[in-house]
UniProtKB/TrEMBL annotation:
InterPro entries in alphabetical order: Cas12f1-like_TNB
Source species of the chain: Caldalkalibacillus thermarum (strain TA2.A1)
A Pfam family that the UniProt record links to this protein: Cas12f1-like_TNB
Keywords associated with the record: Coiled coil, DNA-binding
Domain named Cas12f1-like TNB: residues: 340-401
Coiled-coil ranges from the UniProt annotation: 97-124
One MF term in the entry's GO annotations: DNA binding
Protein name: IS200/IS605 family accessory protein TnpB-related protein
Length: 452
């Protein structure tokens, strides 16, 4: 079972500026809590959110049993601050601080490794940010009360007091969005531009399929350089049933044009934020990610795939000689890959489809027929096998990705003695980075020979 969450956005039509004070007070309280937590808890090991909430409330909030907390300024600065907002701020501050400490520990390890190897370490340490664009959560019953399908009462900070107001918001077709019988969670108040929205999340526990390996069909996906994605439907015998190429040529042309304009503006004016350029770049990125993810999941559903298999994305390594717009496009391409995998994982789990990842090394460099390393010509989406065959590089990679998934799963269900016997007949099985579709086919042939 896996928990699936969908968030629907409802635009508030009755009010707008009245929520500004609520958002400002909540963010100020969050800043206060982050500063106190960072000062009082140098080590978060062994702490959970429940224990941290109790400890922080003793430090900042006065009660009958705790009349003199250490930081009495909190109750003076945030008079009559709702207890649920206070606990929400503590939980959010705990996540912020824990994330910062984790990133700082990772930076220290990278620095120590560079010093041991005698390399110059230029990376700056991460800094804890005390101000955040956080949005408050309105707990149902005490902060949020539904009065209809498109109306509700919420408690906000207005005219220096916490009062209830009635709001109207746009409804959503729950049947169309696929959350008709899902559990409704507490809404959060989110500001986008000058408008306010209620973000209401719905959750449901979904059982992922448990199809036996011998009956599984998979959708192997390669997120290439020229194509957004190339997919192949395969089974455990190595049979390929269908293929699909996914690309957004128009969006990519516009994206490349915008990156060139952005870098040209930065060359002329120095470092500038350029929000208009970035708004269009991010919009195109989102369009490519969403369209690619929907096409992958739809293709997998059409052919009854039980698992969607990706390459494991390692840390981004910038190639040498990449500068200016070319460097930016490489980053955008890597971020798109991450976004596509995350989006597909969320959508696939809603449909009960599993998602797996395999080692990415040599999936594109090795020919699927086992003839060795391929040669790349001028076009990066075309490769030449040592036998002289011309083939699509990304399609070749999908065959190897699918084969590596099946070989990994077959290894789990094969005894050590049988595996060593097969490995002696198929040497490429010894290293996962050398496994191809030919290795999978040879594995089945070797298993038949030894009578397994």
């Amino acid at each position: 079972m896996v928990k699936v969450v969908k968030t629907l956005r409802h635009k508030i039509t009755s009010h707008s500026n009245i929520f500004d004070d609520t958002l400002q007070v909540y963010r100020q309280a969050l800043t206060f809590v982050v500063e106190v937590m960072d000062r009082e808890f140098p080590n978060l090991d062994g702490w959970n959110i429940k224990a941290m909430t109790q400890a922080m409330e003793k430090l900042i909030h006065a009660t009958q049993k705790n009349p003199h907390p250490k930081y009495m300024d909190f109750d003076h600065l945030f008079y009559k601050f709702p207890s649920y907002f206070r606990r929400s701020a503590i939980a959010e501050a705990y996540g912020i601080l824990k994330s910062h400490r984790s990133r700082y520990d990772k930076w220290l390890k990278e620095k120590e490794q560079a010093e041991r190897e005698g390399r110059r370490f230029k990376k700056k340490p991460p800094k804890l940010q005390f101000r955040h664009r956080a949005f408050p959560v309105f707990y149902k019953g005490v902060m949020f009360q539904r009065t209809g399908d498109t109306t509700a009462k919420i408690k906000v900070f207005h005219q220096k007091d916490w009062v209830w107001i009635t709001i109207r918001f746009k409804g959503q077709d729950l049947q169309k969005r696929g959350v008709i019988n899902w559990k409704e969670n507490n809404p959060s108040l989110v500001k986008v531009g000058k408008k306010y929205f209620l973000h209401i999340s719905y959750q449901k526990s979904v059982a992922l399929n448990n199809t036996p390996l011998s009956q599984q069909k998979i959708c192997a996906v390669d997120l290439g350089l020229n194509q957004s994605a190339v997919c192949s439907i395969m089974d455990v015998n190595g049979t390929v049933f269908a293929r699909k190429f996914i690309n957004q040529a128009k969006e990519k042309d516009r994206l490349y044009r915008m990156t060139n304009k952005l870098k040209k503006a930065q060359r002329q004016s120095g470092y500038i934020k350029a929000p208009r350029y970035w708004r269009r770049i991010n919009g195109l990125q989102k369009q490519i990610v969403n369209h690619t993810a929907h096409e992958i999941v739809r293709f997998a559903q059409d052919y009854g795939a039980d698992v969607i298999v990706f390459e494991y994305l390692d840390h981004m390594k910038m190639p040498k000689g990449f500068y200016g717009a070319k460097r930016l496009r490489f980053r955008l391409h890597y971020w798109r890959k991450q976004g596509i995998q995350q989006k597909v994982t969320e959508m696939a789990h809603c449909q009960g489809i599993r998602v797996a990842r395999v080692n990415a090394r040599n999936t594109s460099q090795l020919a699927f027929d086992g003839t060795g390393v391929v040669k790349r010509k001028g076009k990066k989406d075309v490769c030449q096998f040592s036998s002289g065959k011309i083939y699509h590089a990304d399609l070749n990679a999908t065959y190897n990705i699918g084969a590596r998934y099946f070989l990994r799963e077959l290894r789990k269900s094969t005894s050590e003695r049988e595996w060593l016997s097969v490995e002696a007949k198929v040497p490429s099985l010894a290293r996962r980075t050398q496994q191809t579709l030919a290795s999978l086919i040879s594995f089945h042939q070797a298993m038949c020979q030894i009578g397994a």
